[in-house]
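quick q for whoever's on today - can somebody do inverse folding on this one?? i tried earlier but teh output was garbage lol. tokens:
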């Protein structure tokens, strides 16, 4: 098992691309981040509600690795925690390399299960023109690579704060690579 750290937590009670940083957030089992606009049993992201408002919410908690901010900074883009709408910013874990079903133990109590990759959208370019090309790329075989974080559901609720340890619990093999959700 590997380990990382929560660097920042963010939430917003209204629809907005960015989310303000907080001193702490409370995760609620089966729902998401308490008071966050994307919290709920069924889908909350506008594009998904338009397709099927009864679909399960597999995007309750959005996590992004702080290493992405370092990477885009090298390309001249200033992006801070919460700017891309994530709830939890991490450091020290290869989030994009985790298999589907990985459990992340956030702090002393909370546990989320990874459901898939965030599918970056054009709103990223509205935030910083040209940034979308930095968070979506191609691998050596030409396959699409999404780097804008991962999505998860809350299995066990609890408080999450900056500085909390993140413990990675991989699912049984065979591992299923992450796909967009």
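ok took a stab at it. sequence:
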């Amino acid at each position: 098992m590997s380990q990382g750290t929560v660097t920042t937590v963010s939430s917003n009670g209204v629809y907005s691309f960015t989310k303000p940083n907080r001193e702490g957030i409370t995760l609620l089992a089966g729902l998401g981040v308490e008071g966050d606009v994307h919290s709920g049993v069924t889908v909350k992201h506008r594009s998904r509600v338009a397709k099927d408002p009864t679909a399960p919410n597999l995007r309750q908690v959005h996590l992004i690795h702080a290493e992405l901010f370092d990477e885009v900074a090298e390309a001249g883009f200033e992006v801070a925690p919460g700017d891309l709408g994530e709830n939890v910013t991490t450091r020290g874990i290869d989030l994009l390399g985790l298999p589907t079903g990985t459990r992340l133990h956030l702090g002393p109590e909370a546990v989320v299960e990874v459901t898939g990759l965030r599918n970056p959208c054009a709103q990223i370019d509205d935030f910083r023109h040209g940034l979308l090309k930095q968070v979506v790329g191609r691998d050596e075989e030409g396959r699409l690579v999404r780097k804008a974080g991962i999505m998860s559901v809350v299995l066990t609720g609890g408080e999450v704060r900056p500085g909390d340890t993140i413990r990675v619990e991989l699912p049984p093999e065979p591992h299923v690579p992450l796909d967009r959700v």
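fwiw The first strand starts at residue 3 and ends at 10. also The chain has a mean pLDDT of 94. so keep that in mind when u check it
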